[in-house]
Amino acid sequence: MTTRIITPYSAQTTADDIVAGLDLTGQRIIVTGGASGIGIETARSLAGAGAEVTLAVRNLDAGRQVAAQLTAETGSKQVLVAPLDLADQTSVRSFVASWHGPLDVLINNAGLMAAPLTRTPAGWEMQFATNHLGHFTLTTGLRGALAAAARTSEQARVVSVSSSAHLGSGIVFDDIHFRVRPYDPWLAYAQSKTANVLLAVEGSRRWADDGITINALMPGAIRTGLQRYVSDDELDRMRAATGSSAPGWKTPQQGAATSVLLAAAPLLDGVGGKYFEDCNEALPAEPGTRRGVAAHALDPDAAARLWQVSADTVGA
After folding, report:
1. Which residues are part of the catalytic machinery?
2. Which of 128, 140, 131 lies closest to 173, judged by CA?
3. 3-state SS, residue 55
4. Which domains does the chain have, with CATH numbers?
């Protein structure tokens, strides 16, 4: 039985607390969705610690504005912007093709929450297409760049931003895209967030020999643009159910802390296939709460099956 990973950090920890004293000079990091929400704070802290940070964003104008803001605040001239629409496989492949050189850390941060039913031109349910399939193609496409970084520094990391919503559903392999069952925006979101964890489980297993580790996380209850489809009453109910030790809502800096921990903290060297919340490895899910990690999200058989289904779907 492996020992649960406990860190000196907590729900109150900020992303800046994680990088305090760290020198990330020479590290090359991608943050998807880096122009909004906790993506901005994730990029801010990593750039402030010396890393080259590429904001992979759908809205280039917003990305450039954030990059200029972060450059002014951190003094870093290595905050870059590149176009990426995770719902468009052509866009994802173009991003991969344009990337040159090693990649130390990929942070799969962008996401879509509880959206009304929308489909891609291929007929894929939009939340699954964006939150999982886009990141799957991005991650597998950048494997060579990650492996190249690991050959130099002995490791490369992928960070998969999930959610406590994963507790609500495993992968419904018989009808992932809601072609038969009635569409429910929260079940669709939950399924996509489980997929984020399963990516970490199977990816870490497959790529261990390359020196690549993948971990997933729950950032906590933070008010961001991600929740544009969710009512205030529903958000307050969800926050209360998390049982987090953080009083009220987390700040975006606190919400980014677990992402930055998994991206940069030396104490996570060699750790992969795990799910973290409040800067520590999560315990098994607690019935009646929104804390912990569901067994279905760490199931190695489901992880292997999802990887193959995803590869078949996107034509990898």
Report:
1. 189
2. 128
3. strand
4. 15-314 (3.40.50.720)
